[in-house]
Specification:
Chain lengths: ~475, ~475
C-alpha cells in the first residue's frame, strides 16, 4: 500500500477497500516510526489529519470522490495552513500558527486531501541540503549519512521513505528538482505563475514557484491538477484556462526532439551521473525520440545571476520578520534598534543572514546598477538562450545535479560548493520555465540520479508525458529504500 | 543682499477609495485601532499585494486634470526601511516610472496668474501609526492607516514665496476635491504637505542647499513654517554660515522648525521594482473614458467667468476654489447674467461670512442659490433696499416664512416707499421740522444735506430708496 500510486489509492478508497481514516492512520504510524531518524516532518498533528480524514470518508460515502479525496499529502512547511504551526524551517517563525490557508492548501482541502504533516526544509528555503533548518537536518532515506537535498528536503524524504504518497514543494533555484533527484523521486516546478504564491512564504518572489513531488509523473499530473489555477490574490498568477495535466500521458514519443545543451555535458558532471543520464537518453532514443545538440551560451552565468537576484529579493521579503507583530522576538533589548538587531540576529540562521547581507549589498546605493540591474539584463539573455534552443528541440534534458547526494556536513562550510548543486536547475527559475526531475538510476554509493527535463512555457502536460513514457518502460521510480 | 526664496512642495493626498491600495480592508477614518488591518496590511508571512483599480483611476484623473503624461507601464517599487508602523519593512511606492509625469497647475496671485510645473505624481501606500502614550513605557501600533492609497504630487521648485506656496497648495487642494479623488480633509491627514525650501542671492542661477520640512497639515502651518525656515536660512547665510541639507520638523507651538535628520543619517532605501506587482499597463481607451468623465475643471471655469461674466481674475479664482461654490455661483449667474458681479459679491460677502459664522461649507448652505436670486431681483426692481436684503437673507437662513422672499418682505414690512407722493409728503414734513438745517444747507453747508437725508430715512423707517430720497431732496432744496 505504501508503494501504491495515487490512482491505486483512490481506487481502494472508492471501492471501500480502505477508509481515509485507516489510510491516514497507516501513514501517521509510518511517520511515527521513521521520522525520529529521518526528521522529514516539523509538525505532525494526528488530531487535525484524522479530522480531515473523517470528513473525507463522509464525502466518499456521499459519492463525492475526486482523484485526491481522502489521500494524505505532506505539505512543505513554507505553505501557511490555518491552525497549523507554519515555521518555514526558521526559529523566527518557530511559534507562528497561521490564521489562514495558502491558496495551495485551500485547493488540497477543497479536493478532500488530508494534510498529513508539515515537512522540514532549509530555513526560508535557502539551502540545497536541508542542513540550514532550525529544526535539524533531514536524512536521505537511501543513505542516512547523506543529505536529501533542499530546500524541499523534508518533502523529498517523506515521499522517498513512503511516509506520504506525495508532497508539495517549492522551487526558487532547484528546491523541488534537486531533492527529488537526490532522493530518487519525481518532482516538477511548473511555469512561473501557474501555482499561486498566496500563502507561500516568500523567498525570492520572481523565482519562487510551488509544485508537486511524488513517486511518478502520473502522480505529479494528478497533483498539478489540484494545485494549479488562477488566484486573484497573487498578481503574478496567470489567468489561463484550467488544464488537465494528465491528458497527454499516453502520447507516444516518436518524433520527439530532445535538446542536449553542450554546456551541460561539457564538464562538471561526475562520471556516475553521466553514465545514468546516457542510459536514460538511450531509453528515450528507443522510445522514438531523437537527440540534438543545442547551446545555452549564458548558462555559466545562471548561478552568479541567481545569487544576486534571489538574495536581493529575499533581503526585502524577510524584512517583515522584525519581532513586532508575530514570530520570534528577542528577550533582551534596550531600545527599538536593539530589539530589531537582537531579534534578527537570534531568529535567523547563518545562511539566511548571509543572503540578507548579500541582497542588501547588491541593492545599495552605488551598487544597484553594477549588480542588480546587470543581473536583470543577464536574466533576459538566459531566457533568450532557451527561446533559441526551443527552436531546435521540444524539451531540454541533462542531469538535475552534477553529482549524487553528498554527505551531511560535507559542504556546509563551503557555500560556493553548496550553491553549485543548483547549477543546472536555477536557469529554469530565471527564465520562468517549467522543469522537472525523474529518477533514472543510481550512481556512487547506490545514491539516486535524477534526469532534468526543461520544457517551454506551459508545456507541463507534454513534459509529464515524456516522463511517463519513460516510467512505463523502466522501474527506477518504483524503487524504494529498504527501511 | 537681496535673497530669492525657492520652494517646491510634495503633497500627499489620500485617495478616496473605499478599500486600501493593496488589500480589501476599509479605509474609513476613526475605527478602533487595528480593526481595519487585514492579513495583507499586517504583513503576515505569505501574503501578497493586489493593486486597487480605483486608486489607479484616481491617479489617472489627476494626471489628466493637470495635463500631465500618463505613463504606461508605470512601475511599483519597494522602499526599504525598518519602522514598527511599516509592517513589511518596506513601503510600496513608485520610483523610476511614476504613473503621472509632468503637467502644471495655474495659481492666481492677485490679478496675475502663475504656472507651477509639476515633476510627477506617484501612487504609494501609507504607513500605520505609532502611539507613544498610554502603553506604560511601550509603544502601540495602529495599522488601520497602513495601506491607505496616497498620490504624492511633487512640484518643481517654481514657488517664490510662502504666499505662492499656500496659493499652490490651496489650488491643488481645490483641484483634488473638484475632480473627486480626495476628500481634502486636512484634520484627518488626507492632504499633507512637505516643503523643500532654499534661498539664493537674487540673480544667482544655482539653487541654494535645501531643507525639507515634513508633514505640514494646514495652510497656516505651511506658511509659518516656510517663513520661519526662510528667515533661519538667510540669517545663517548672512552670518557667513552655510546650510546643511536636512529634514526638519515644524513645531506648531513654538512656530519654528528643527532638525529631524541630516543627510548623513538618511536611509539608503534600496529601491527596486516590487516583484509581487506587475508593471501597470493602462489601456488608451480607459484614459479616454476617464477624460470624458472629468467635470469642467476649475482652471477652465475661471477663465470662462472672466470672459463670460466679466469677473476679475481674483473673483473668478475665489469662486472656483471649490466646485460647490462655483456651482452655487453658476446657478445664480445663469439667472442673472447681467448682475454676475453682484452675485459674486453676495457669495464672497454675506453668504461666506454667514457660513463662516456657523462653520458651514457652501454645500451645506441653508439658503439655496434660487432664493438669493429672488432676493437680488427684489433689490434690482427697487422693492427693497440693499440693507433690507440683509434682513431678508437672515430670515431665509432661519427658514422663516417657508423661505419665500416676498412673504418675508411683506411680513417684515421691508418694502421701500416707491410712491413719489408719499415720499414727497414725508420730505416736506422733515424740511418743515428742520428749518435750521435747511438754512445751513442753503448757506453752503454740504454736511447739512446728509443730515436731512438721514432724517428722511429715519422717518421712512428705512423703507425709502436712498437714491430716490437724494433726488427728491435736491429738487426741493433747489
Amino acid at each position: 500500500m505504501f508503494n501504491d500510486s495515487l490512482k491505486q489509492l483512490s481506487e481502494r478508497l472508492a471501492n471501500r477497500a480502505i477508509s481515509s481514516v485507516e489510510l491516514t492512520t497507516e501513514f501517521l504510524r509510518r511517520i511515527g516510526k521513521l521520522n525520529p531518524q529521518y526528521n522529514a516532518f516539523i509538525t505532525v498533528n494526528e488530531e487535525k489529519s484524522l479530522a480531515q480524514a473523517r470528513r473525507a470518508d463522509q464525502k466518499i460515502a456521499a459519492g463525492e470522490i475526486g482523484p485526491l479525496t481522502g489521500i494524505p499529502i505532506a505539505q512543505k512547511d513554507i505553505f501557511c495552513a490555518k491552525g497549523w504551526l507554519t515555521t518555514c524551517g526558521s526559529k523566527m517563525l518557530s511559534n507562528f500558527v497561521s490564521p489562514y490557508d495558502a491558496d495551495v492548501i485551500e485547493r488540497f482541502n477543497q479536493a478532500g486531501a488530508i494534510n498529513i504533516g508539515k515537512t522540514n526544509m532549509d530555513e526560508f528555503a535557502m539551502g540545497s541540503s536541508n542542513e540550514t533548518s532550525y529544526f535539524g537536518p533531514v536524512r536521505n532515506p537511501w543513505d542516512a549519512v547523506a543529505v536529501p537535498g533542499g530546500s524541499s528536503g523534508g518533502s523529498a524524504c517523506a515521499v522517498a521513505a513512503r511516509m506520504a504518497p506525495a508532497a508539495t514543494g517549492t522551487d526558487t533555484g532547484g528546491s523541488i528538482r534537486q531533492p527529488a533527484a537526490l532522493c530518487g523521486i519525481s518532482g516538477i516546478k511548473p511555469t512561473y505563475g501557474t501555482v499561486s504564491r498566496y500563502g507561500m512564504i516568500a523567498f525570492a518572489s520572481s523565482l519562487d514557484q510551488g509544485g508537486p513531488m511524488a513517486k511518478s509523473a502520473e502522480d505529479l499530473a494528478l497533483m498539478l491538477n489540484v494545485m494549479t489555477g488562477f488566484d486573484e490574490r497573487d498578481s503574478t498568477s496567470l489567468q489561463r484556462e484550467k488544464e488537465d495535466y494528465a491528458r497527454d500521458l499516453s502520447r507516444p514519443l516518436s518524433g520527439l526532439r530532445i535538446g542536449l545543451p553542450r554546456e551541460y555535458f561539457a564538464k562538471g558532471m561526475s562520471s556516475d551521473v553521466e553514465k545514468a543520464i546516457e542510459q536514460a537518453l538511450d531509453e528515450y532514443r528507443r522510445l522514438g525520440a531523437e537527440t540534438v545538440e543545442v547551446s545555452l551560451p549564458n548558462s555559466s552565468l545562471s548561478i552568479p545571476v541567481y545569487y544576486v537576484l534571489a538574495p536581493a529579493e529575499a533581503s526585502s521579503n524577510l524584512s517583515r520578520f522584525d519581532g513586532v507583530r508575530y514570530g520570534y522576538r528577542a528577550q533582551v533589548f534596550q531600545d527599538l534598534a536593539e530589539m530589531y538587531r537582537n531579534t534578527r540576529a537570534e531568529g535567523f540562521g547563518a545562511e539566511v543572514k548571509r543572503r540578507i547581507l548579500i541582497g542588501t549589498y547588491v541593492l545599495s546605493h552605488g551598487y544597484y546598477d553594477a549588480y542588480y540591474i546587470k543581473a536583470q539584463k543577464l536574466r533576459r539573455l538566459i531566457a533568450q538562450d532557451f527561446k533559441n534552443a526551443f527552436k531546435q528541440c521540444d524539451v531540454i534534458m541533462g542531469p538535475t545535479t552534477p553529482a549524487v547526494a553528498f554527505d551531511l556536513g560535507e559542504k556546509s562550510s563551503d557555500p560556493i560548493q553548496m550553491y553549485l548543486s543548483d547549477i543546472y536547475t536555477s536557469a529554469a527559475n530565471l527564465a520562468g520555465l517549467p522543469g522537472m526531475s525523474i529518477p533514472v538510476g543510481f550512481g556512487d554509493k547506490m545514491r539516486p540520479v535524477g534526469l532534468h527535463i526543461i520544457g517551454d512555457y506551459f508545456s507541463e502536460a507534454r513534459m509529464l508525458n515524456i516522463a511517463h513514457q519513460y516510467q512505463l518502460i523502466t522501474d527506477w521510480h518504483q524503487r524504494a529504500p529498504n527501511l | 543682499m537681496q535673497w530669492e526664496i525657492v520652494i517646491g512642495l510634495e503633497v500627499h493626498t489620500q485617495l478616496s477609495t473605499q478599500s486600501k491600495i493593496f488589500s480589501g480592508a476599509s479605509t474609513a477614518y476613526g475605527a478602533l485601532p487595528n480593526t481595519q488591518a487585514s492579513f495583507v496590511d499586517l504583513a503576515l508571512p505569505g501574503v501578497l499585494p493586489v493593486l486597487n483599480r480605483g486608486a489607479v483611476e484616481r491617479a489617472i484623473k489627476f494626471g489628466l486634470a493637470v495635463n500631465a503624461k500618463i505613463n504606461s507601464p508605470s512601475i511599483f517599487a519597494r522602499k526599504n526601511y525598518f519602522y514598527p508602523d511599516l509592517p513589511k519593512g518596506y513601503q510600496i511606492s513608485q520610483y523610476e516610472r511614476p504613473i503621472v509625469e509632468g503637467g502644471s497647475i495655474g495659481i492666481q496671485m492677485g490679478e496675475t496668474e502663475k504656472t507651477i510645473r509639476l515633476t510627477r505624481a506617484h501612487l504609494e501606500e501609507d504607513a500605520g501609526k505609532s502611539l507613544h502614550e498610554d502603553f506604560h513605557g511601550m509603544s502601540g501600533i495602529d495599522l488601520n492607516r497602513a495601506g491607505t492609497p496616497l498620490l504624492e504630487i511633487v512640484s518643481e521648485p517654481d514657488l517664490r514665496s510662502s504666499a505662492e506656496a499656500v496659493a499652490y497648495a490651496k489650488t491643488l487642494h481645490a483641484l483634488v476635491r473638484w475632480i473627486g479623488i480626495c476628500d481634502g480633509n486636512m484634520q484627518e491627514g488626507s492632504f499633507r504637505c512637505d516643503a523643500n525650501v532654499s534661498v539664493r542671492p537674487l540673480g544667482q542661477e544655482k539653487y541654494g542647499t535645501r531643507c525639507e520640512i515634513k508633514n505640514l497639515n494646514s495652510f497656516r502651518f505651511l506658511e509659518k513654517a516656510i517663513d520661519f525656515e526662510v528667515g533661519r536660512q538667510i540669517e545663517i547665510l548672512e552670518d557667513g554660515g552655510s546650510i546643511r541639507q536636512e529634514t526638519r520638523l515644524f513645531d506648531a507651538n513654538k512656530g519654528e522648525t528643527r532638525t529631524m535628520r541630516t543627510k548623513e543619517d538618511a536611509n539608503d532605501y534600496r529601491y527596486f521594482p516590487d516583484p509581487d506587482l506587475l508593471p501597470v499597463e493602462i489601456a488608451p481607451d480607459w484614459i479616454e473614458q476617464l477624460r470624458a468623465s472629468l467635470p469642467e475643471l476649475p482652471q477652465v471655469r475661471r477663465e470662462r467667468y472672466v470672459i463670460e461674466y466679466g469677473l476679475s481674475g481674483y473673483d473668478a479664482a475665489v469662486l472656483t476654489s471649490s466646485r460647490e461654490m462655483a456651482d452655487y455661483f453658476e446657478a445664480m449667474a445663469r439667472q442673472l447674467p447681467e448682475c454676475a458681479k453682484l452675485c459674486a459679491n453676495w457669495i464672497m460677502g454675506d453668504i461666506s461670512a454667514r457660513l463662516n459664522r456657523d462653520g458651514l461649507d457652501i454645500a451645506e448652505c441653508p439658503v439655496g442659490a434660487a432664493h438669493v436670486v429672488q432676493l437680488i431681483n427684489r433689490i434690482q426692481d427697487g422693492t427693497i433696499s440693499g440693507k433690507a436684503a440683509k434682513t431678508v437673507f437672515e430670515s431665509l437662513w432661519q427658514g422663516e416664512h417657508g423661505q419665500n422672499v416676498d412673504a418675508i418682505i411683506e411680513a417684515k414690512g421691508l418694502k421701500q416707499m416707491s410712491d413719489n407722493s408719499a415720499l414727497e409728503k414725508l420730505i416736506d414734513d422733515v424740511l418743515a421740522a428742520n428749518a435750521q438745517q435747511v438754512a445751513d444747507y442753503r448757506g453752503g453747508k454740504e454736511k447739512a444735506f446728509n443730515a436731512l437725508v438721514g432724517q428722511v430715512m429715519k422717518a421712512a423707517q428705512g423703507k425709502a430708496n436712498p437714491a430716490q430720497v437724494n433726488a427728491l431732496l435736491k429738487e426741493k432744496l433747489g
